[in-house]
Amino acid sequence: MKEQLRKNLDEVIWNIEQARIGVNEHHIVKLVAVGKYSDEENIKTLYELGQRAFGENQVQQLETRMQNLEELPLEWHMMGTLQSNKINKLIELRPSLFQSLDSLKLAEALNQRLAERHQTMNTLLQINAANEESKSGVSADEAYDTYVQIKESCPQIKLKGVMSIGAHSANEKLIQQSFEKTYKIYESLKKYDANICSMGMSNDYELAIQCGSNLVRIGSKIFK
Ligand SMILES: *Cc1c(COP(=O)(O)O)cnc(C)c1O
Known about the structure:
Elements: H1 2-23, E1 30-34, H2 40-48, E2 53-56, H3 59-68, E3 75-78, H4 87-93, E4 97-101, H5 104-116, E5 121-128, E6 138-139, H6 140-153, E7 157-164, H7 172-188, E8 196-199, H8 205-210, E9 215-218, H9 220-223
Parallel strand pairs: 1-2, 1-9, 2-3, 3-4, 4-5, 5-6, 5-7, 7-8
The protein binds pyridoxal-5'-phosphate.
């Protein structure tokens, strides 16, 4: 398994490298390995291979893994829908980045609980760029205003940029359009210190990087 993981990781890193050099040599892309289909043993193996940033999409699983892998200096990202009854748990876990803040209402609730604990949290605003029923996130039309409003009214939430899942489609053009839309919003938010544009998963990360992504979240291509 270790050899397989090494091969997968090398391939993903190589592809990221090719794609980012194609944008320009100063375009740095961060890789977050998403362990949700895998186990702690494999996460540990990836750590030994040099990977440091890991993501989960459920608070419960994030907690278990953070606890069981506590001895390793890992950076943890939360990237799934956050139920309001899990807010306190997430705050307790102090993730390095909460990537899936998907509404103003959630931001306000999170901000209030953070304030009670004198804590802050680094977050990304999730954008549902392709306007899909199945996905959470603010619409592309509302994203800019929502971002600014959270910035202004939720001081405990440290917004660092945006996250989006590419359009669910076999048509690459549609996926590309959804990335371009998200990137445009990200660019317009740079004046509010947005510096992370999280786009791209196993099936579309190279395209996402070509569209300006500087953080990719990859699960199956690494852990398969
Ligand atoms: C599962 C997941 C990923 C990784 O998905 P793969 O297609 O396996 O790379 C990335 N982002 C989010 C939000 C996820 O839930």
